[in-house]
Amino acid sequence: MMMLAADHIDGLGAILGPQGLLSQPADMASYESGARYDGGRAAFVARPASTEAVSQVVAYCVSHSIALVPQSGNTGLVGGSTPDDSGMQGVLSLDRLRSTFELDIDNRSLCVDAGFRLSEINARLEPYGLFFPIDLGADPMAGGMVATNTGGTRFLRFGDVRRNTLGLKLVLGDKSGTVLDCGAGLRKDNSGPDWKQLFIGTGGAFGIVTECTFNLERLPKQTATAYLVPRGGEDALLLLSEMEERAGTYLNAFEGMSGQAIRHALAHAPALRNPFPGGDIPAYVILVELSRSWAPRAGEQSLDAVLEEILADIWELPGGPLLDAFIGAPSEMWALRHALSEGAKSAGNVVGLDLSFRRGEVMRFRERMAVLLAAEFPQVEISDFGHIGDGGVHFNLVVPRSPDGSVDVELAARLRTYVTRIAVEEHDGSYSAEHGLGRRNQHFYDHYTPAKLKQMAAQFRQVTSPGAVGAVHL
Amino acid sequence: MMMLAADHIDGLGAILGPQGLLSQPADMASYESGARYDGGRAAFVARPASTEAVSQVVAYCVSHSIALVPQSGNTGLVGGSTPDDSGMQGVLSLDRLRSTFELDIDNRSLCVDAGFRLSEINARLEPYGLFFPIDLGADPMAGGMVATNTGGTRFLRFGDVRRNTLGLKLVLGDKSGTVLDCGAGLRKDNSGPDWKQLFIGTGGAFGIVTECTFNLERLPKQTATAYLVPRGGEDALLLLSEMEERAGTYLNAFEGMSGQAIRHALAHAPALRNPFPGGDIPAYVILVELSRSWAPRAGEQSLDAVLEEILADIWELPGGPLLDAFIGAPSEMWALRHALSEGAKSAGNVVGLDLSFRRGEVMRFRERMAVLLAAEFPQVEISDFGHIGDGGVHFNLVVPRSPDGSVDVELAARLRTYVTRIAVEEHDGSYSAEHGLGRRNQHFYDHYTPAKLKQMAAQFRQVTSPGAVGAVHL
Which keywords annotate this record (chains A, B) (predicted)? Predict the structure, then answer.
């Protein structure tokens, strides 16, 4: 077992002070494992409380060839924020970067340190009627949301973190820990290459995000939701197009839930009511949400009434693409949607794939996979759900647990490779829709990225982060 | 006078055929001058008709150290698409790149060659109820819109070209004219750095856009417009915030027009009716537009009625920020807005600055500049208008024409430098909001860009475009 020389611990301790550096196993444990995957072992956990301190830590580590893995909320799913098993990588936690929180109401923007959690940000913004429009099951910190370019369930309306990022402050992984300011919160600025874009979604490989300027949106004040049951896969796409045509920018979300995923969720969370008449769960269900940012006005149709009218119109479409529809309370309808992920896990070992396609391709892919997997891996159950409105699908495969509870690692790897190959090579899809890059998908990056793009990354790293920063190697 | 060796003309002619290469002065003239600035002199104009031919031309030119300036619609304002005066640069026109036009209705996206004009794209999309949501006075081609990251009057609702670009095909400026595919039209893809972002808004300096995949939006089917007269500059910001609060995503545009700009437009275009009672033009007027993408539904308030109600509510706000308001026909209201630019030019020599600020800063900047310019440059008149909703302002300065019609080039340069310095250094603004980078603002790039960012650009150019491609040097 290798260990980092004790004088490095002393050197970093001198920079960070006693509160800022952890090196005892018990203190480091929570920084070593991620939310949904096995972690590794850290040489130390550095917890700088300012951009300047981040810069000093990076400068020290790059100068001494110590590898660093930046970590903020550590809620990621792809191994992007935890150290490997070597015990030689330091974790650079951003969880004490919590000073700057500057709301610019006129600009509808927020400049915030990387260590604030999404829930905190939105709780603080609520009194102003504003929010950061990324909607997730998890509760990440600002820095990690940028590093993974998080999407979420309202992507269709508000876009991803990239679209909502107006500026970044970064510490580059070079020997001086260069601090870089990219963007001053302007909504339009073409005075040079938009460099901040390369730091979004790249897991810290080019530099560490310490401060973000985000676009804010007005909080919804009226919401209406419904479950739609399409006749088949192509009908789901038609319903998407019809909803966009008729609901326009009211449309917040168009989320698909497979019947299997719903069954698992209901079995796992008995408090959830089965919303389907007679308990018969359809093969596929779509959750649509409409919202308005203004309070109801006198003389204005309620949003529920608007939704009802739209569904009545769609009901009459030739071919009957809509088999059934239910308008219901948003909180109840979303509760089922948010229980899908845990539901699958309760049913077995989950091999989760975060895929995306052109929108027309997503239903074709899942229907084809159902046939292929039944033939090739009959023991595996598909329990997928996803963001049909933007072509994303969480393609979860449930493998029955062995009696001794062990996980068949080899089968999981085969499944990942098999499904990813078909998604990427035969359906022009992406193996990383919205969970970002990490150790988990490093080999897919290595395999599928054209040589020229790898060369561009290597060249760009030379001038930004020649040091070993980040869990992923671009 | 230098000239390019005749055997290079022969070499390029062999690649391009007789239709594809222009070298006679009369044929080249229209490619040598831009829309609103003096042009230069071209060594030749290459007009390849396919990405492969672009690649061959670039490979030939880079290998023989011939500089190339890519040009598409040539409607830009900053000298980004025309050659310099040396007569040694070739123009690489994309105007024959007009084959691919692939509409993906399910994905709401369009894959289109760089040589299609915005007006053509939208005319072809209209039967499908879709459009590319960039709204401009000019009629650029797809490639140039990407190279400048064009904004326009509906930015507030639909964003810039960057936000609406899902993929690019590029030819890099290296010795092999490497063809690069960035993005396959996916709406979410985090399988690596989003390289296409660096080719957006950089005027071809890193590579030449030959094909674009754009996001499309549904065409508006209901529109309502009004002129608002704010009491003062801060009130304009308050009106913006109130409109966003009450109109939400209906709000398409929030455009500011100075009284001076309106006066010039009315004087220049007598067919325009003075819309203000008694003919008294207010100091500042805001054009707001609301739209919906669906046809009017039975039982639904008309959009005019919604706008009227919103304005009635705003009318009652304490402090009376709204001095006056007029609802009118969209075509008539926009006609005045679109006449402002020509109006200013009819009044004298225009020194045009394309600035942007955080939204709260834009009105403060223009009020401060009114005082400063009156003291420093009393002969100059401000005739500004702009996209207040996204912090952009076309800060046009009108210098009276000298009796002999000559332009005081030295005064124009002093004005540009003076205003830009205050905008950038004292109001955190950008000297290039939405017109892109070109020869016109090269010196501002050189002056204001931090050394580290210049180093990043140089490094990135080494791996993408080591040859001399583009009018701007990053």
Answer: FAD, Flavoprotein
